[in-house]
Amino acid sequence: MSNNLSGDTLRVALVAHDQKKDALVAWVETNAEHLESAQLYATGTTGSRINDALPVLNIHCLKSGPLGGDQQIGALICEGKLDALFFFIDPMSPMPHDVDVKALSRLAIVYDLPFANSQSTATYVLKGLLNG
Ligand SMILES: O=C(CO)COP(=O)(O)O
């Protein structure tokens, strides 16, 4: 099931930096039954990795993060079109688009969007969403 208790379809964005993509794909596989009828968005490379592993999820892929995908997700947040952001950030590697990463993180905070950066937090956030 991917609806919350009030029956609304969950709208979720999935993003991972390269060193965290395996972890996000594994987390999505573990939670696929909860995500399969959610409305899913992802940045380009993250989305194609998830699509390869789980084509059934029907993810809407945006641009790759460094090419504007992070900003597209930020726009969805501003427009009230997301219920959560699962963004597995790599804390060990410098990013050429660090400003976009910061901007996306900032908007998630500004709009008080449930925002998970690692597997354990993602699991708690998803449980919270499902339980309304
Ligand atoms: O860079 C990203 C987030 O900052 C993710 O982008 P990709 O999913 O295209 O790799």
From TrEMBL:
It holds the Pfam family MGS. HAMAP family: Methylglyoxal_synth. SMART domains: MGS. Keywords: Lyase. The keyword Oxidoreductase does not apply. Transmembrane segments: none annotated. It catalyses: dihydroxyacetone phosphate = methylglyoxal + phosphate. Belongs to the methylglyoxal synthase family. This is Methylglyoxal synthase. One of its GO terms (biological process) is methylglyoxal biosynthetic process. The active site is at D70. The keyword Lyase applies. One of its GO terms (cellular component) is cytosol. Substrate binds at H17, K21, T43, G44, T45, T46, S64, G65, H97. Its EC number is 4.2.3.3. PANTHER family: METHYLGLYOXAL SYNTHASE. It is an enzyme of class 4 (lyase). One of its GO terms (molecular function) is methylglyoxal synthase activity. Residues 3-132 form the MGS-like domain. InterPro entries: Methylgl_synth, Methylglyoxal_synth_AS, MGS-like_dom, MGS-like_dom_sf. Catalyzes the formation of methylglyoxal from dihydroxyacetone phosphate.
